[in-house]
Amino acid sequence: MKHEKFAKESFVTSAEMVLPNDTNPLHNLMGGRLLHLMDVVAAISAQKHSNRVVVTASVDNVSFKHSPKLGDTITLEAHVTRAFNSSMEVFIRVYTENIPNGTKIETNTAFFTFVAVDQTGRPIIVPKLIPESEEENKLFEGALQRREFRLVMAGRIKLKDATSLHEFVEDINN
Ligand SMILES: CC(C)(COP(=O)(O)OP(=O)(O)OC[C@H]1O[C@@H](n2cnc3c(N)ncnc32)[C@H](O)[C@@H]1OP(=O)(O)O)[C@@H](O)C(=O)NCCC(=O)NCCS
């Protein structure tokens, strides 16, 4: 197993057309269907980084800014932003395109956390991630605070132990 991998090695892009069975009575894509597609694409990205079976540990803050419509094309782009011990944060961005009309807009973004597991479902160490571009570095830097925030929200760590969040609050106060 490699000890370090580049963010670009985990890039995944997928395109889907919104079909009648994916929509509500207003012919808009159902939110749960989009979450399913996002989960699959993000999981493939985490697998590419870890070369392991991965499980979804959490999904952060998905807001639907626009609703993809029947016949639209949705494009999902994902990559790992940072790897910790067994867990990886994946950033995913979704675009909706109406190809006949020539329009393309960002529909939503989200952060997924996946944990690499062995054949018995136990967490297993993953390679570190090396960011290269400006955006990859920005996402990498922010990942520690987001990790602590979600672990506090999940009741897995205490706020007093979330040291990077303390620094964040100090920065705001100064
Ligand atoms: C995620 C899971 C593997 C964690 O197992 P665990 O025995 O609690 O393991 P640990 O406490 O050692 O945590 C392992 C990693 O998961 C991370 N993790 C656990 N819960 C998390 C959460 N809610 N959000 C983000 N990360 C989480 C930990 O921070 C740790 O990361 P690290 O190894 O990089 O430091 C386990 O809870 C699980 O299998 N959950 C079900 C996953 C699943 O089925 N998802 C699909 C649902 S339909």
TrEMBL record:
What Pfam families does UniProt report for this protein, alphabetically?
4HBT (PF03061)
Q: Which Gene3D superfamilies match?
A: Hotdog Thioesterase
What positions does the domain HotDog ACOT-type occupy?
8-120
Name a GO molecular-function annotation.
long-chain fatty acyl-CoA hydrolase activity
Return the similarity comment: Belongs to the acyl coenzyme A hydrolase family.
Organism (species): Flammeovirga pectinis
Keywords attached to this entry: Hydrolase
Establish whether keyword Hydrolase is in the entry. yes
- Kindly list the GO CC terms recorded for this protein: cytoplasm
Tell me the lineage of the source organism: Bacteria, Pseudomonadati, Bacteroidota, Cytophagia, Cytophagales
Q: Which InterPro entries match?
A: Cytosol_ACT, HOTDOG_ACOT, HotDog_dom_sf, Thioestr_dom
Name of the protein described by the UniProt record: Acyl-CoA thioesterase
Tell me which Gene Ontology terms the entry assigns under biological process. Answer: acyl-CoA metabolic process
